[in-house]
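Hey, I'm writing a tutorial for new members on how sequence and structure tokens pair up, and I'd like a real worked example in the thread rather than a made-up one. If someone can provide the structure for the chain below, I'll link this post from the tutorial.
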Amino acid sequence: MALFTVTLPGGEIWTPQFVNSIDADKCIACGRCFKVCAQAVLRLIGIDEDGETVELDDDDDDDDEYEKKVMTVGHAERCSGCQACAMICPKKCYSLSAAEV
């Protein structure tokens, strides 16, 4: 199968790389990726002491019930393939891939 590519105005061929996953072991929940994502693809979740994920409320300020917070892919279908999240991530947590057509 062929990969999805885009021809840029200058004639260059660009292959978007779409987010597949985020490595929760590496993620420090700094929020940089969340801020640069224009498509609202990402979501912050909590991980409790048992390793279970916990949905966070928008007004959730109680950090005591979480072992840590991490970013996750909340809406992969919205990803435009710009790769801004992976480029800004200081821990290189992102797994990306091109889309087949």
